[in-house]
Amino acid sequence: MEKIKMTTPLVEMDGDEMTRILWKMIKEELLLPNIDLKTEYYDLGLEYRNETNDQVTVDSALATKKYKVAVKCATITPNAARMEEYDLKEMWKSPNGTIRAILDGTVFRAPIVVKGIEPCVKNWKKPITIARHAYGDVYKGSEMKIPGAGRVELVYTAEDGTQTKELVHNFDGPGIVQGMHNLNKSIESFARSCFSYALDTKQDLWFATKDTISKKYDHTFKDIFQEIYDAEFDEKFKAAGIEYFYTLIDDAVARVMKSEGGYIWACKNYDGDVMSDMVSSAFGSLAMMTSVLVSPEGYYEYEAAHGTVQRHYYKHLKGEETSTNSVATIFAWTGALRKRGELDGNQELMKFADRLEKATIDTIEAGEMTKDLALITTIENPTVLNSEGFIKAIAKRL
Ligand code: NAP
Ligand code: MG
Q1: Which atom of ligand 1 has the smallest separation from the CA of 77?
Q2: Less CB within 10 Å around the terminal CB: N or C of the chain?
């Protein structure tokens, strides 16, 4: 069979530990036999990040701006233990943070739904994609403990020195206070990323805040979304047959529980932090969750939502057998290949991505899976495969 040709390279960001092992297997067993794979390779493994003073991470993000599509393996975010383990020159920052700062994107997390791995919420039939705003609010808040009676005010000093004040509270005893902020520019790019991704995936977009209580802060989020929707996306949404739906956050939570899924739920920073863990655990497994960073300029970086699966890697190093789930990493590749195909008008590449996803899902639905899924599946007597065996089973079906 002739291999599928590619015209433009993908940015390939290799990573660490067990996911680095899976990465190689996926390429060798599933991709290279079928595609004349063109990638620009960046090694984001911790050793090479350390060797290059983390320049390789910056370079890989800049390459993503050039080629528009990247696929990333999970990477170690160093902590004190890793400083010693890898003899690091510095405690390098999280690569995901560095890449996000350069691309200014929003992360969309979506579960991979298969028969036999049933969500805890029984009416959820389709994936619910969470989009979390990743700037400001309580994550960049300043706080104070108020020791006793006194007055707390918000003070804004304009560049010309004029001041505007707003009373927070007249304390008559000890208490606490918090100040937080956000930027119109950041909310605007969050809104654009969400609307573009909804169009891209042809799914409705939901957004919710507490604008009835927070008449200036949350209301600004609501207003910015509505202004951008009306000015730039209304016609496109109608043409695509999808909807933008705004409601209050408590109403949204109630509706999400009763829905069948199949939409994108845009969340403010804190709501997204909390709700993404609820949605992902209710859908079954972190190993079945993909993640894509979408920039407002239309750059895409695909990855798995889980980490480097350190515990399995140490078993692997000792020569023991592992049964690590590669589904989210495979779907990171298919997401990137499909997007590459779409941007290049490469139908064959897009079809390959569909076929590989189908082969992966069919393998699980036929009862062949890794241990993490075997523990939670409703399929009777599943066959538990090791890390490599599972990828080979997919290759056979493909
Ligand atoms: P992890 O890699 O998410 O794994 C935590 C546990 O979840 C595993 O020990 C395993 O449970 C289970 N698990 C996760 N993914 C799995 C898979 N694909 N197949 C089977 N089981 C899976 O988190 P971690 O081990 O605590 O973190 C390791 C490193 O990942 C850290 O250095 C962290 O900085 C990094 N990290 C990177 C990213 C990223 O690059 N996006 C995200 C998160 C964390 P059992 O052990 O019970 O089998
Ligand atoms: Mg969290």
Answers
A1: 34
A2: N
